[in-house]
UniProtKB/TrEMBL annotation, chain A:
Belongs to the NLE1/RSA4 family. WD repeats lie at residues 108-149, 150-182, 193-231, 240-280, 359-400, 401-442, 443-476. Pfam families: NLE, WD40. Keywords: Nucleus, Repeat, WD repeat. One of its GO terms (biological process) is ribosomal large subunit assembly. Residues 15-74 form the NLE domain. GO terms for cellular component: nucleolus. It is found in: Nucleus, Nucleolus. This is NLE domain-containing protein.
From TrEMBL, chain B:
It is found in: Nucleus, Nucleolus. This is Ribosome biogenesis protein NSA2 homolog. Involved in the biogenesis of the 60S ribosomal subunit. May play a part in the quality control of pre-60S particles. Coiled coil: none annotated. Pfam families: Ribosomal_S8e (PF01201). Residues 1-82 are annotated as: Disordered. GO terms for biological process: ribosomal large subunit biogenesis; rRNA processing.
């Protein structure tokens, strides 16, 4: 190994380094590395040690700061003593790289009222949007034109969700009813499902690796309960009541637990076979606005990954489980909740009832929190016009992205976790780069507030919809 | 009333009149008008009794109608689709509408125009005229009472010359004339002794403003060239407004706070 020098003990042009992975396990023992070694050489080293077949990209961090220059320069700048062992944490980055979008390829009109929610299907081939004119519309991504108009709701369509295998689309409305659609034909599947008495605030599907084909999903509503439905039987399986005020968000975790956040300042964890309450996470001082799981992105996309391959049903479950375990790693699933009390909590719900860390810093309520697809970062959008970036494992604050002049409503990550997109009331979208922690691209063009944004899982397109009733597709 | 059954006997023997049915129908139809005329024209206790009876009948009819309208199927009434669709995270929040923001800016502009500035002392105790002025008797027999002497602190400009004493109505004693004020900067919390340039507004009235009377709450203009303030354009600021915070006639000095 020509990296290790034979000058053991000479501190002049070598540094004693210890490579560790994000969870803390050491890679080999402490070794001498020449001071001219930069990230490239360290990548080679790590690949060699891990016996990787192909060269995977890594990024290196020394005491939470990214190492972009050779080790020697870093030591000089920070005046770290050469005598001590330098701990370098390596993190694998995504193999593929997403191109940042920079132009609006199409402005598609069609909705008669404000667009309230948009969502790409997990394979990135279909797009659905719900609006205040009570319709759900499906759009063709190749020609960028409307495909189907799905009528069936009686009031505004507040949320939509694709099943992780891409075969079902479910939407919830302001009158409390849920409609299931066949995305290939654009038709209503059966009758609207009733049961909730007030409007639907969120929908979440059961992960594919727990049950394939996808049948169950959970919805949360203002009337204070969450219901688990079966899309083939078209009825409520279990009603999870317990919250005293509106349930604002619901997420189905990868370990089969449902998390619900509510306006009564608590988060409840439910088990899914009988609908019993497992735990209650208290701590917030005001409404819980949004929840995010560290494995959320991989649960949403199921068995689809950046290669875009389709799998037969029985293989889907295996592939989804493989992807889930890869993202999750050895650590337990993490949950972050954003609230009206201007703070967020990072929880490890399967480990303890007490929050792991309290993330403070925002000066107005936190509207939306989202883990990056690899689970390493947390992005939070707040009404104080900033987007904050936090470390996804420890909850440490990293940086605040300022640039918006109005409250930031929603954020979305690119599939490789290198770019972050935010949409705000000031009618612009902004793309932020994580590596340099600066603004990468400003996407103006909307005439009014931007209510919903989404980045397609294959990274090709970004869609945004808002109060000006049009859908904008952005491309790189 | 018939005392016997001769009417029925006649009916049985000879039957009814040929137009009996028609007449009966028309008479019954006229009853409605008759009843209404009766109800409208009766007076006194009779009228009250008729009205009470009618009201009771009306209430009963309404109840039975409502009962019939109730259906056994419980269907939620269709809510109208409202305008101004917002996503779920904005539903429970009362955002100020654009109209409200516009009306607020207009209100602010109006306030500025009216001269209602935001000052440290928005309200001060009004000073009565007899407290402000003392009557000076003049004339050979000291019967004329048209002269007044100001009893509060005043400011007269540097080029001030009295009017001929025979004609001056308001006397401003030189003992109560001040040229300098102790002005405090609210944020820096330090006080400077600055020259007064003029009186901008006395809250007790325009007359006092023109006389130059300084009471608590008066806005005065002071010379701040000592402080070395510069405008963003690069020009030196030499006059700023300050508001008087004490009662100068009691203290013998003028304390003011700078309006930044």
């Amino acid at each position: 190994m020509n990296m290790e020098t034979s000058q053991a003990g000479m501190g002049n042009n070598t540094v004693m380094c210890l490579l560790t992975d994000p969870e803390g396990t050491n890679l080999g023992s402490a070794m001498y590395i020449p001071q001219t070694a930069g990230p490239l050489q360290l990548t080679q080293l790590v690949n060699r040690f891990l016996n990787n077949e192909e060269m995977l990209p890594y990024s290196f961090y020394v005491s939470d700061e990214e190492l972009l220059v050779p080790v020697g320069t870093y030591l000089e700048k920070n005046q770290v003593s050469v005598e001590k062992v330098l701990t370098i944490v390596y993190q694998q980055q995504a193999v593929f790289r997403i191109r940042p979008v920079n132009r609006c390829s199409q402005t598609i009109a069609g909705h008669a009222e404000a667009v309230l929610c948009v969502s790409f299907s997990p394979d990135g081939k279909q797009l659905a949007s719900g609006s205040g004119d009570t319709t759900v519309r499906l759009w063709d991504l190749y020609t960028e034109t409307p495909l189907f108009t799905c009528k069936g709701h009686r009031n505004w369509v507040l949320s939509i969700a694709w099943s992780p295998d891409g075969k079902h689309l479910v939407s919830g409305s302001k009158s409390g009813e849920i409609c299931c659609w066949n995305p290939k034909k654009g038709e209503l599947d059966g009758n609207p499902l009733t049961g909730h008495k007030k409007w639907i605030t969120g929908i979440s599907w059961e992960p594919v690796h727990l049950s394939s084909p996808c049948r169950r999903f959970v919805t949360s509503s203002k009337d204070g309960d969450a219901r688990i439905w079966d899309v083939t039987l078209k009825k409520t399986l279990i009603c999870l009541s317990g919250h005293t005020l509106a349930v604002t968000c619901v997420k189905w975790g990868g370990d089969g637990i449902i998390y619900t956040g509510s306006q009564d300042c608590t988060i409840k964890m439910w088990e899914t076979t009988q609908g019993k309450l497992i735990r209650e996470l208290k701590g917030h001082g005001h409404w819980v606005n949004s929840l995010a799981l560290s494995t959320e992105y991989v649960l949403r996309t199921g068995a689809f990954d950046h290669t875009g391959r389709q799998y037969p049903p029985n293989e889907e479950m295996k592939k989804a489980l493989e992807r889930y375990n890869q993202t999750k790693g050895d650590s337990p699933e993490r949950l972050v909740s954003g609230s009206d009390d201007f703070t967020m909590f990072l929880w490890e719900p399967s480990v303890s009832k007490q929050p792991k860390k309290r993330l403070t810093g925002h000066q107005q309520l936190v509207n939306h929190v989202y883990f990056s697809p690899d689970g390493k970062w947390i992005a939070s959008a707040s009404f104080d016009r900033s987007v904050r970036l936090w470390n996804g494992v420890t909850g440490q604050f990293v940086t605040a992205f300022r640039g918006h002049v109005g409250p930031v409503y929603q954020v979305s990550w690119s599939a490789d976790s290198r770019l972050l997109l935010s949409g705000s009331k000031d009618s612009t979208l902004k793309i932020w780069e994580i590596r340099t922690k600066t603004l990468k691209q400003d996407l103006p063009g909307h005439a009014d507030e931007v209510f919903a944004v989404d980045w397609s899982p294959d990274g090709e397109k970004v869609v945004s919809g808002g109060k000006d009733k049009v859908l904008k597709l952005w491309k790189g | 009333m018939p005392q016997g059954d001769y009417i029925e006997l006649h009916k049985k023997r000879h039957g009814r009149r040929l137009d009996y049915e028609e007449r009966k129908r028309k008479k019954e139809a006229r009853q409605v008008h008759k009843r209404s005329k009766q109800a409208q024209n009766s007076i006194g206790i009779k009228g009250k009794m008729i009205a009470k009876k009618n009201y009771a009948e009306k209430a009963q009819m309404k109840k039975t109608l409502k009962m019939h309208e109730e259906s056994s199927s419980r269907r939620k009434a269709d809510e109208d689709v409202q305008e101004g669709a917002v996503p779920a995270y904005l539903l429970d929040r009362e955002n100020t509408t654009r109209a409200k923001v516009l009306s607020n800016t207009i209100k602010q502009k109006r306030k500025e125009k009216a001269g209602k500035w935001e000052v440290p002392l928005p309200k001060v105790r009004p000073v009565a005229e007899d407290e402000m002025f003392r009557v000076i008797r003049s004339g050979k027999r000291k019967t004329k009472q048209w002269k007044r002497m100001v009893t509060k602190a005043t400011f007269v400009g540097p080029g001030f010359t009295r009017k001929p004493p025979k004609y001056e109505r308001f006397i401003r004693p030189s003992g109560l004339r001040f040229t300098k004020a102790h002005v405090t900067h609210p944020e820096l919390r330090c006080t400077f002794c600055l020259e007064i340039i003029g009186i901008k507004k006395n809250p007790n009235g325009p007359m006092y403003t023109s006389l130059g009377v300084m009471t608590r709450g008066t806005i005065i203009e002071v010379n701040v060239s000592e402080l070395g303030l510069v405008t963003p354009a690069g020009k030196v600021v030499w006059g700023k407004y300050a508001q008087v915070t004490n009662n100068p006639e009691n203290d013998g000095c003028i304390n003011a706070v700078l309006l930044v």
